[in-house]
Amino acid sequence: MTYHPKSEFLRVIIERGFLADCTNLQELDEALSKGMVTAYIGYDATAASLHVGHLLNIMLLRWFQKTGHKPITLMGGGTTKVGDPSFRSDERPLLSPEQIDANIDGMQKVFARYLDYDHGENAALMRNNAEWLDDLNYLDFLRDIGRHFSVNRMLSFESVKSRLDREQSLSFLEFNYMILQAYDFLELNRRYDCLLQMGGSDQWGNIVNGIDLTRRVLDNEIYGLTTPLLTTSDGRKMGKSQGGAVWLNAEMLSPYEFWQFWRNTTDADTGRFLKLYTDLPVEECDRLGALEGSEINEAKIILANEVTALLHGEEAAKAAEATAREVFEKGGVGDDLPTVELSPADIGDGISIVQLFVKSGLADSGKAAKRLFAEGGAKVNDEDHKDAGFLVTAEMLKEPMKLSAGKKRHALVVLKG
């Protein structure tokens, strides 16, 4: 039997495809129906920017706030010092406190695009778990919190079990991560009456730990809700492109390249992604997703525009679309393409065309660039180019040089100074 929720939040997220699991759906629905609920999602500061893989849960927080509830973005200033071992085959590299703080600064810019931290009773909160984790007394923590955890049970969690089954080392430091994350939920419940933790389905075990701990220590009933781990219709993990992670900060990935990532969505994923990553009404998402032939390309442009406008603003989305139309329809050079600026000193007597493909991000390595040339996928100024040994001189860059990898990925090389 399909559950029909009373609360607007659950209705919206079930209809749009956000819900994987929930610890007690009916009780949570009751709480959400009675008034404003506070929920959080945690983000470890392992990089200077969030990436597209985080976007599903950021949209989940956005819908949570849009339906009248209060979201908390919890920055893992404390837990990042340990590292989440979930479904990893190796230990995360440890970062310095300075690196962690710099990464948090970079991540905060993105949240402000999706959530309102300033207005109304349900204004979002941003908190850092270093507030309570940095000053923990180890012996007190072991006695008050550690005694509630069964090692037998912790070993049974899939994230830990999969690592041990492969006979890969799991350090005691990492083993503590799930206790610290559970303690976060306890603290947020104690401090902010936070009733719900949300996250990807790989976090299910950690979320359940926090619910159990809070019930044992505070005798409070709290809830967990997870989103599906998304793969594209061709089986790839959502958020990975040929060039690596699809970053959300403009300094790490230009708005044009971000737009292009969404424009390249497969036909089969278009309707689903419109429901998950835009604010468009569900009926419109379904209508656009059902288009076929050349019409589905217009749906993909709407997807790219909507997602880019949310993150980078409407002007950036319009500029990206205009550039794409110029590049793909007219074969021209758009103003908004990723650009490599070189000085005469950088070029010297000549710089290898292979090096330019790597510098522009069109190839991950010299080897990948040479393969592109060998397979006929490289173009220079819209002309097929097969000579991987070609040298580009400063003279040749009096006009911007357009590089292309395949039909859809382009960059400019310009001479400065």
Automatic annotation (TrEMBL):
Is RNA-binding included in the keywords of this UniProt record? yes
Give the residue ranges of motif 'KMSKS' region. 237-241
According to its UniProt entry, the protein's GO biological process terms are: tyrosyl-tRNA aminoacylation
**'HIGH' region (motif): residue ranges:** 45-54
Binding residues annotated for ATP, in chain numbering: K240
Q: What is its main location?
A: cytoplasm
Q: Where in the cell is it found?
A: Cytoplasm
EC class name: ligase
Cellular component per GO? cytosol
Keyword set, alphabetical order: Aminoacyl-tRNA synthetase, ATP-binding, Cytoplasm, Ligase, Nucleotide-binding, Protein biosynthesis, RNA-binding
Catalysed reaction per UniProt?
tRNA(Tyr) + L-tyrosine + ATP = L-tyrosyl-tRNA(Tyr) + AMP + diphosphate + H(+)
**SUPFAM superfamilies in the record, alphabetically?**
Alpha-L RNA-binding motif, Nucleotidylyl transferase
The cross-references to InterPro entries, in alphabetical order and at most eight, read: aa-tRNA-synth_Ic, Rossmann-like_a/b/a_fold, S4_RNA-bd_sf, Tyr-tRNA-ligase, Tyr-tRNA-ligase_bac-type, Tyr-tRNA-ligase_bac_1
Subunit-level organization: Homodimer.
Q: What is this protein called?
A: Tyrosine--tRNA ligase
Instruction: Give the organism, scientific name.
Output: Celeribacter persicus
Q: Provide the taxonomic classification.
A: Bacteria, Pseudomonadati, Pseudomonadota, Alphaproteobacteria, Rhodobacterales
